[in-house]
Write a sequence for this structure.
């Protein structure tokens, strides 16, 4: 790995990055941009975000720390961290190819063959090759290990039959990281799973767009009907699938890995909600003069601060002695539920204007708050529902028995 | 969707701890567990004094009464941050003593008393003599500056009149620090216990049976002029009293919340109905998990309040958040503790009731969650 830069080198680099992002971060394109990589609905949005990612990559601010021989910048990871920080400062659009550079890329760099690295890495950084993920199935949501999509070896090929769902960018992706069942034998349901880097243009793969609660598109259901892919698409050996999938999920959680940089989700700004409340009216007076509204707002501020403190505390051993895993395991539940409640509350501020929705010229912030609230369910449902999270905390932290 | 709290965090305090704090936490954890098993708590509930003098003596010998008192006055010279973990463990084991009263009384003296007054009282407090505060009045207002008791110049001193309530451990105290109104100004008055006739104290019947408080009739009590603290520092002192009290309460309440949850979990893991452990039912599993999440949030706020105590602005916000958050967490956890114990929960023998009553007590003193949120609104918006 490249050597650690000095403070002066980093400061120089930051100044360069700052100048570049100030100059190049796109202004309002005149149409709505997705808040996350999961809700890319139109060709216009897709092309805009592809162009932006390619531009950032070509300027050297994406994949800066990935090896040069595969298309990266070969620099120390500290440089990429600085670049991402500056990107955030100028509030640039998201990086589109999340599954590529966030999951598949780190995985291929970690355990992929030389050929795979050469074939895939550069295209995912430049957004030329968009990636999607085929894990969830219609009948296996929370129970991922029970995946049933069949992959049967036939000479130099695998024949795929089954279906995947909630596939973000599935209608636009060139490749899919795919968890499929190659066997029903073995000691448990996990043993028969295998992992593929599958091309999406193979005959027999069809996608159907799914319209979301928000009215946007962004993910699809994929149908595999005798679809044939090369046997070279298999990653590792047959039966390694579960282990590789779990490794991939660790990258999602930001485990120790050399990430490509950038961000895939826009962050909701806590103080933005306060600003919205300040400019809203009740009885001709500012909303925040209303003691009830004020009280609820304080409650949210306390909640936000509690999560912020929890995140600091979970890394402080002496302050988490009694239940060391508690704060880590509750984070997803507490955070996603808080965002759901806070964005719901933000609709109440708006009075009659709360009746408008995205794209009406009179909608407050073009319906940003409505969209944020409806989208907040993607986090309280996706990645393990809040109800499953409560079971996990109850069983793994509080030691309560599993329900039968 | 992700969430950025960075810009909010800039206005609020962060988290940290000192080695001394952790050492005290460890010692207090075993001390309180060993000295205050639940059968002893119940025995002391029936005792007139309400605490064990031998344990009180040990607390003094451990130096805990002087932690936030400067070395020059015989203390340890640390801060309220190091007192909080002790209060937390006391709350966890329902070990109630004059500890909080003495600690806050010392803070009041440090905030408003002169060198001579500090020199006279602080070493005695460190040694285990009891000092307490007489702040509340029959009007029930949490605003400490709302004082109707009177101090009227009389000869060389002042004649006091009016009624004070919830004066903790007044019967055993050597010193009572009372707020009185002197010519329209709130002043802190040092009243030696010897100046208080036994008949002026009435033991109050309070919701938390592990504590002792008294109503104090000030009529007939006179104090020398030297017993009034600096008028110019009254407001600061009242602020210090309120925040120090709220911090210690938040800490005790976090400890109590932890116990209420642990006590209930034990029941959910052993009690069977319809052939199942009741902890298998999500109708009980999920609310107790919510109680636990609330507890960890409250504890983060409390540790932040301890860490930031004394920081101008940030400290007050952190303490009020801690008390408000602890009230919410303790009330919910203890309320569910009663309910989840079913018929047994309705009996006086079930410890859930002790925690529920303790939470009500704490909410009633120095402001409940809603009151602190109202104060926070003024500080934040």
């Amino acid at each position: 790995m490249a050597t650690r830069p000095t403070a002066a080198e980093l400061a120089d680099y930051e100044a360069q990055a700052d100048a570049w992002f100030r100059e190049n971060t796109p202004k309002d394109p005149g149409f709505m941009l997705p808040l996350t990589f999961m809700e890319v609905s139109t060709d216009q949005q897709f092309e805009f975000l592809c162009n932006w990612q390619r531009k950032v990559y070509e300027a050297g601010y994406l994949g800066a720390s990935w090896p040069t021989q595969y298309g990266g910048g070969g620099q120390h990871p500290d440089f990429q961290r600085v670049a991402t920080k500056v990107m955030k400062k100028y509030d640039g659009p998201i990086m589109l190819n999340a599954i590529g550079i966030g999951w598949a890329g780190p995985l291929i760099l970690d355990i992929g063959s030389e050929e795979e690295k050469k074939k895939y890495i550069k295209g995912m950084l430049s957004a030329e090759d968009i990636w999607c993920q085929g894990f969830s199935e219609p009948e296996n949501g929370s129970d991922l290990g029970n995946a049933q999509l069949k992959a049967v070896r036939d000479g130099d090929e695998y024949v795929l039959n089954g279906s995947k769902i909630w596939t973000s960018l599935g209608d636009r992706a060139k490749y899919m990281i795919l968890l499929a069942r190659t066997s029903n034998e073995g000691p448990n349901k996990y043993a028969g799973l295998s992992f593929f880097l599958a091309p999406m243009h193979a005959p027999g793969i069809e996608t159907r767009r799914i319209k979301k609660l928000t009215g946007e598109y962004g993910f699809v259901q994929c149908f595999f009907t005798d679809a044939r892919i090369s046997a070279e698409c298999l990653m590792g050996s047959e039966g390694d699938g579960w282990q590789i999938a779990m490794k991939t999920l660790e990258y999602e959680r930001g485990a120790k890995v050399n990430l490509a940089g950038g961000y895939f989700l826009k962050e909701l700004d806590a103080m933005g909600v306060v600003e919205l409340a300040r400019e809203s009216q009740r009885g001709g007076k500012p909303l925040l003069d209303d003691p009830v509204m004020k009280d609820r707002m304080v409650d949210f501020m306390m909640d936000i601060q509690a999560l912020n403190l929890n995140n600091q505390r979970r890394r402080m051993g002496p302050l988490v002695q009694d239940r060391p895993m508690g704060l880590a395991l509750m984070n997803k539940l507490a955070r996603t539920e808080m965002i759901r409640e806070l964005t719901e509350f933000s609709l109440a501020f708006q009075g009659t204007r709360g009746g408008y929705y995205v794209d009406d010229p009179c909608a407050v912030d073009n319906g940003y708050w409505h969209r944020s609230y409806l989208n907040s369910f993607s986090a309280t449902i996706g990645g393990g529902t809040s109800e499953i999270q409560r079971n996990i905390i109850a069983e793994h932290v509080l030691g309560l028995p599993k329900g039968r | 969707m992700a969430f950025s709290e960075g810009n909010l965090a800039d206005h609020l305090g962060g988290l940290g701890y000192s080695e001394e704090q952790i050492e005290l936490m460890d010692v207090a954890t075993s001390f309180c567990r060993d000295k205050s098993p639940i059968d002893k708590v119940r025995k002391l509930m029936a005792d007139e004094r309400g605490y064990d003098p031998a344990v009180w003596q040990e607390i003094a010998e451990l130096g805990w009464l002087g932690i936030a008192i400067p070395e020059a006055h015989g203390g340890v010279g640390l801060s309220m941050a190091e007192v909080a973990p002790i209060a937390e463990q006391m709350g966890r084991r329902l070990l109630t003593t004059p500890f909080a009263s003495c600690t806050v009384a010392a803070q009041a003296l440090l905030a408003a008393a002169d060198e001579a007054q500090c020199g006279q009282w602080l070493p005695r407090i460190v040694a285990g003599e009891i000092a307490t505060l007489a702040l509340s009045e029959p009007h029930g207002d949490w605003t400490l500056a709302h004082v109707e008791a009177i101090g009227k110049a009389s000869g060389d001193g002042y004649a006091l009149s009016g009624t004070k309530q919830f004066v903790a451990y007044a019967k055993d105290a050597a010193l009572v620090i009372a707020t009185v109104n002197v010519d329209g100004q709130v002043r802190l008055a040092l009243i030696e216990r010897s100046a208080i006739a036994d008949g002026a104290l009435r033991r109050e019947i309070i919701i938390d049976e592990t504590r002792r408080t008294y109503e104090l009739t000030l009529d007939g009590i006179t104090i020398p002029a030297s017993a009034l603290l600096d008028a110019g520092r009254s407001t600061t002192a009242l602020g210090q009293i309120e925040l120090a009290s709220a911090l210690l309460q938040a800490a005790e309440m976090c400890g109590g919340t932890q116990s209420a949850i642990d006590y209930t979990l034990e029941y959910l893991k052993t009690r069977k109905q319809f052939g199942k452990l009741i902890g298998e039912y999500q109708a009980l599993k999920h609310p107790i998990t919510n109680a636990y999440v609330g507890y960890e949030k409250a504890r983060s706020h409390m540790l932040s309040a301890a860490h930031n105590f004394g920081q101008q602005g940030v400290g007050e916000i952190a303490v009020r958040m801690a008390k408000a958050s602890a009230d919410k967490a303790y009330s919910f956890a203890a309320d569910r503790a009663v309910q989840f114990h079913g018929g047994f929960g309705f009996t006086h023998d079930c410890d859930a009731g002790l925690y529920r009553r303790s939470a009500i007590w704490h909410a009633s003193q120095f402001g409940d969650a809603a009151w602190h949120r109202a104060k926070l609104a003024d500080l934040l918006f």
Notes: Chain B touches chain A through 49 residues (CB under 8 Å). DSSP finds 13 helices and twelve strands in chain B.
